Amino acid sequence: MADPRTGESRRASGAGRQSSRPQEDPDTVLKRQRNTIAARKYRQKRLDRVKELEDALESMTQERDDLKLRLARQEAETAALREMMKMKSGQDSGSH
């Protein structure tokens, strides 16, 4: 978020800010570092999953489009064959 008074931007979370606390407990520092790493790993995993889903969607969309085209061709062929059958049966009944 930008501070209109100074023109500087600030982070919404406290990430990247230097601690104003005197000395932190080493266990707390270690816990915070582990949490930061875990959060980064989780965010990356989430991004990877979104990418995986987007790729799957693209693949399935392409497959659907291919199947629609194939169906349209089959329907056109069926209609043409039905028309040929009509014409053939019309010729057969006319020759008797």
TrEMBL record:
The record lists the lineage as:
Eukaryota, Fungi, Dikarya, Ascomycota, Pezizomycotina
Residue ranges annotated as coiled coil are: 43-84
Xref: InterPro entries: bZIP (IPR004827), bZIP_sf (IPR046347)
> GO molecular function, one example?
DNA-binding transcription factor activity
Q: Where is this region: Disordered?
A: 1-37
Protein's name in the database: BZIP domain-containing protein
List all Low complexity biased stretches: 12-21
Q: Which PROSITE patterns match?
A: BZIP, BZIP_BASIC
Q: Which UniProt keywords apply?
A: Coiled coil
Pinpoint the BZIP domain residues.
25-88
- Please name one Pfam family that this protein belongs to: bZIP_2
- Basic and acidic residues bias locations: 1-11
Gene3D superfamilies xref list: 1.20.5.170
